[in-house]
Design goal:
CATH superfamily of the largest domain in chain A: Glycosidases
Number of domains of chain A: 2
Largest sheet of chain A: 8 strands, parallel, barrel
Distance between the termini of chain A: 55 Å
CATH topology of the largest domain in chain A: TIM Barrel
CATH architecture of the largest domain in chain A: Alpha-Beta Barrel
Low-confidence stretches of chain A: 1-12
Strand order of the largest sheet of chain A: 8-9-10-11-12-13-14-15
Largest interface: A-B, 78 and 78 residues
Mean pLDDT of chain A: 94
Oligomer: homodimer
CATH class of the largest domain in chain A: Alpha Beta
Chain lengths: 516, 516
């Protein structure tokens, strides 16, 4: 059968899939799908698949159409080898997708999580013809074999600097699944606010949130984690520490270093007290019940270590034999990593923990400074996540508005990584820091640039031509819009409004350019 | 009973309602609502109310909570005098709302459309307390009597310059209902594109749309009109003509004046041919089936009347005794108004039809030039809709990004209108022209500024202090965010990103302002 497939670039949706699959083989036939009878069936039904079928039915077929006779009774069948495989780092996400000439569609996957990606790919193949009112797939028979290059494909959002109501976080998770992203890195607490409920210390949010309503209830978090899981997305919470913690200070100044206790100073936890670690362990143990993922992000960036330059901490440092604050930082990082281990978690730290401390070898280091650090991190034997800010112009920091999609697209996490260390690069993240985004402009700033990162992390390393990618990305952006996502235009800086009238694939032209 | 109410400004949600009701009387008690048992009941059930109950249940109670004992079995009862009153210009939209000390809520309205506003007001009274996990209403007993000042409270969107997928139009309708807006003025066709299906002339969209997918199917329009109606919003379609029509020319150059037939020229319909009017009548008759509203907007702005300066049209003008193109324009306007009448519709025209022609007296004139025109329009006996662009800085053009919410708020449609002519001012509209907005930034640009217009059109004329309004508007903006609307911050120009970290009520401060 495979012999009759012709693999070449067709100007159809079959070759416009984003992110680009590993292998696409196309025929030349256009087949019609009957939206009124097209069925979704799992050989072994799971809760996740049934939920996905419900979602994708309306994504495949967004327009109401008149029923038409359908002798073929076509539909989609999903077969999963291990329907119970848990969503976790490194779970098999591969799938194969076949669309046959009779309209039947077959998705085979090792796990539910791979099957979800197959459904997403299929959804991008279905076109609607306004003239005939019919749904169709071009380039049939279609045979696709696909799997991600990296295990960790994430987006960081920062709900500490601006609160993002649950409805917006869920919408963002929906949009991430369209690009096959699988990690929401949820930076939950900051100097500015503390929006997440704690059962053991409810006063943290009561006093640390911006106000009485910009908070997540316990059940809200459960709800978001479930929403994410149904879309194959792990939620990794970040509780940044020992710096970026001033909002904790509003209710618990006693665990803060005395050097920075005023409201207008950036505080740091006090590592001299066992009380501090007992407190943190109690809160993290509580939260571990709603964040089931193996990984816990404990920050460690931009520590205002000057806070430890006070008589009490200096005396304690002497007792401990610490010569400087770097040694204090190292102590803090390792003691927190031990707590994380006790809670059954592995810890992710920002790259300061690698630069200025020596965390345990099972820690994961997230690179945000210069990209060249990646090589050093893996050469030291640590696993690494790539999210270099690239000077805010050539990195994966989405708050760097001067960083364009194509700048992000060509960044390669494996640059200068030796072959034997490649396995240590888990993947990467786009980082949507919250200083200048809130629900007004969050999606607008994230998309379509996150799509560039998503393809870099999913597709083969050889898929790196911005010229080839651009028309596909423009179509993907149109699909995002049709699904309700507020994606910006392709081209220009981050968050560029359309410069003039135009279609969703074009940035637009001014009236003067359109009409003389 | 009324005697015990104390009417004064409480710092509670009961006085933060947007737009401000005509009369609010408050007690001083805070009562708890049990979200698990709170019921919604209509004394006479209607489809619209049942749908609204479903929506508002999740708006009243957005967070999942643990069931608690509820001896009071409180809930909301709606009583409607005329449940069959059709949604139309001038329908009674008044309501009264009473929240009693035992938690029962009573909404009385003349029509379903008034009752919907009562539900919206009640939704703005319900607070969630994160510490206790309880919903409550403060200032009980609450007695509110409310009705709009103007009958026509609209938003214009422009789907001709950028296509807005149905899912975005529906989201916008949802958000409009939160501000008690009741008209979507849907500018559907433009020089740039023709996105709407026509059953009699499908080639109009097939050739005039930007592409194969940025189009509305017939069923899409039906779906949007129904979605709007369920929220008390009339949909008034605009088919702008005789100018702003170049996208029609792609399939039907034969109804265009020969003076402007090239692709790069802005075209104008040819009034010299009966064929033109026959064609337009056929298309409008078709669309009349899916746009049930009494009003049809036929544009008439910015006519490139130079297109009529060609030998054929000049010869025809001679035959007709027309001295200039103004007389041609007048002929076109009146002939189209006659077609509209034949289709059972009344016509709305932009103010050029008043300035340069003499439409029939039952036409409605929409003012977009200087606000001073309003007086002239009503003095000439026409009904008027206010949407002056105010030089794009002090008007109701939302694409005028320099126009701030407070500039919009203080504009009064009845300025210089004599008392006996006030009835002729139907209301006003915020105009979100589409050159620089598409789904990426549409809501971000519309909100919160449209809220300023909404309150001007709903509340008493005396409610005009920006100082009093601002904290209420900030709370309303937070409510919009919590409901999934992408509203910009209060303050600054249109579409200003938050300048730094902060709560939803505050524009934000830079890191440097927050921490020394």
């Amino acid at each position: 059968m495979l012999g009759i497939f012709i693999s070449f670039l067709l100007a159809t949706s079959a070759t416009a899939i984003w992110p680009k699959p590993r292998l696409v083989q196309n025929g030349t036939t256009r087949i019609v799908l009957n939206s009124n009878t097209y069925g979704f069936k799992a050989l072994t039904s799971t809760v996740e698949l049934e939920d996905a079928f419900r979602r994708y039915k309306s994504i495949f077929f967004p327009h109401a159409t008149e029923p038409v006779p359908d002798p073929s009774n076509n539909g989609l069948v999903v077969d999963i080898l291990d329907p119970t495989a848990a969503l976790a780092l490194g779970v098999n996400e591969s799938y194969t997708l076949d669309v046959h000439l009779d309209g039947t569609t077959f998705i085979a996957a090792k796990t539910v999580w791979g099957a979800l990606h197959g459904l997403e790919t299929m959804s991008q193949l279905v076109d609607f013809n306004f003239a005939t009112g019919q749904y169709s797939v071009s380039g049939v028979p279609v045979h696709i074999e696909d799997e991600p290059r990296f295990q960790h494909r994430g987006l960081l959002i920062d709900s500490g600097r601006h609160f993002e109501p649950v409805i917006h976080v869920k919408a963002l998770l929906d949009s991430m699944s369209y690009a096959k992203m699988n990690v929401l890195h949820w930076h939950l607490t900051e100097d500015q606010s503390f929006p997440i409920a704690s059962r053991v210390h409810p006063e943290l949010a009561a006093k640390g949130a911006y106000n009485d309503f910009e908070q997540y209830t316990w059940q809200d978090i459960v709800d978001v984690v479930k929403h994410a899981r149904l879309r194959g997305i792990r939620v990794i919470p970040e509780f940044d520490m020992p710096g970026h913690t001033s909002a904790w200070r509003k209710s618990h100044p006693e665990i803060f270093a005395e050097g920075c206790l005023t409201e207008s100073s950036r505080g740091a936890f006090d590592p001299a007290k066992n009380e501090t670690f007992d407190f943190l362990q109690a809160t993290l143990k509580d939260w571990a019940e709603i964040f089931p993922d193996l990984f816990l992000h404990l920050g460690s960036d931009e520590v205002p270590s000057g806070c430890w330059n006070n008589s009490k901490d200096l005396a304690w440092m002497k007792t401990m034999g610490f010569a400087n604050t770097s040694e204090v930082f190292n102590y803090f990082v390792n003691r927190m990593a031990a707590i994380s281990t006790k809670l059954g978690r592995q810890t992710i730290f920002w790259d300061e923990a690698f630069l200025f401390a020596k965390p345990p070898q099972d820690a994961v280091i997230q690179n945000w400074h210069d990209a060249s650090l990646m090589q050093k991190i893996v050469d030291a034997g640590y696993r690494a996540i790539f999210s270099s800010n690239g000077g805010y112009t050539h990195g994966w920091y989405l708050d760097g508005l001067a960083a364009t999609w194509d700048n992000m697209y060509v960044l390669e996490p494996l640059t200068n990584i030796s072959a034997d260390k490649e396995k240590l690069v888990l993947g990467g993240e786009g980082c949507m820091w919250g200083e200048g985004v809130d629900p007004s402009d969050l999606e607008f700033t994230v998309w379509p640039r996150l799509a560039a990162i998503a393809e870099r992390l999913w597709s083969d390393r050889s898929v790196n031509s911005t010229v080839e990618a651009q028309p596909r990305l423009e179509i993907f952006r149109c699909q995002l819009l049709a699904r309700g996502v507020h994606s910006g235009v392709v081209g220009g800086n981050g968050r560029s409004p359309p410069p003039g009238p135009g279609s969703c694939t074009q940035p637009g032209k001014t009236e003067e350019q359109l009409f003389v």
